[in-house]
Amino acid sequence: MRLCLTLLASTAFASGLAWADAGPETPKDPADFAQPPAHAAGPVPAGPVNYKLTTLAKGLDHPWSIAFLPDGSMLVTERAGRLRVIRNGELDPTPVSGVPPVYTAPGSAIQAAGQAGLFDVVLHPKFAENHIIYLTFATGDASANATRVVRAKFEGHALTDVQPIFTAAPLKDTANHFGARMVFLPDGTFLLTVGEGFEYREKAQDLSTDLGKIVHLNEDGSIPSGNPFSGRPGARPEIWTLGHRNEQGLFFDVKTGRVWETEHGPKGGDEINIIEPGKNYGWPVITYGMDYSGAYVSPYTEHEGMEQPILYWTPSIAPSGFTIYHGDKFPEWEGDGFSGSLVFKNVRHVNFDANYAVVGQEELFKELGMRIRDVRTGPDGYLYLLTEIDHAGLFGPGAGDGTVVRVEPK
Question: What is the pLDDT averaged over residues 38-44?
Fold first, then answer.
């Protein structure tokens, strides 16, 4: 959907965000994209770390997320709609039963699949006591679909007491940009990313819709008191932040209390952000990316009242899962960020200084030759990767070639 700035301004004003009334801005020049701009950070070697890669599971169909159970087992989602378990170092051949129906938008011989499917799996903070897990996924059909969250009891081989607790509104008719990353906060509430649906970019600035937002919910899906837009006329009370495109990395750092997020830009302009309640992260009013057609999404990269990313990537790396490393296995990586890259088939290791300025980057694990869908720090201090093969959509050739890989010191 191609929208002029006039429409964007009117949409933002209707949401109570009259950015068009702010001071003058400097439009982007096409030459800005010929070299990394001032806020970008190119690859800089961060110092060698010796590691080895151990494959824990093979034969997965587009693994999307991983969760670590107290007994050492792991739950892994497959985007095709299955929940798998790795027990005692082996992938259980039988998927967990009881997963609700998932919209997967399968492709055909002439049309690639969309991005719909089963996404995140997250443990309840008191999982050891209640065995509750959360799943995020695409629900609906091609004409009406949304990001949904369910909670259920994990019984080892089955899910029981499956309860839908949140469905993003409104429904949309695109099979792209679901967001769907989820993370718990220390008070037992959780954050969930919701993409803007690809064709509805202007909705990211519209507080009457969940599209292009991060929402904040209680563990049962109810809305906490004190959310930043609660009580604003026309605003959805679950909204925590706005101005997002397609947020596929979300991480709460228990050591600092910060929430980190990565999101896809269009053609360039992928971002790492630190998320704070009530903030506007700009899309599509400001962006360091261009439209896929080569046209401008917006001529602006900065605007009053809109946040700048900690880091942006042009050209796009297509960021996926994200983690800040804290552990005893790789002391050289302590406090650093790791983002999967779907395009370049590696993990981007980002070095931060004490003020979270980027001081260097390096590309890791290129030898796998696979798209990196998720990056997690395990409770054992190892780094874990989910990989998928590069092909046109779900159910195509190579759909069962995904892996779970552990990164260990060498």
Answer: 46
Q: What is the pLDDT of residue 2?
A: 33
Element housing 128 (H / E): helix 127-130
Active-site entry in 177, 216, 244, 349: 177
Q: Is residue 1 part of a domain?
A: no
Total number of domains constituting the chain: 1
Which CATH number goes with the domain that contains 81? Answer: 2.120.10.30
Q: Catalytic residue at 124?
A: no
In a domain, 153, yes or no: yes
pLDDT confidence band for 34 (50 / 70 / 90): very low
Residue 388 is assigned to a structural domain of this protein: no
Question: Domain range for residue 104?
Answer: 64-320+358-363
Q: For the residues of 146-182, what is the DSSP string, one character each?
A: EEEEEEEEE-SSBEEEEEEEEE-SS-BS-SS-----E
Mean pLDDT to the nearest integer, 9-13: 38
Confidence of residue 114 (pLDDT cuts 50, 70, 90): confident
HSE-CB of 349 using CA atoms within 13 angstroms = 19
Residue 243 token pair:
């101005």
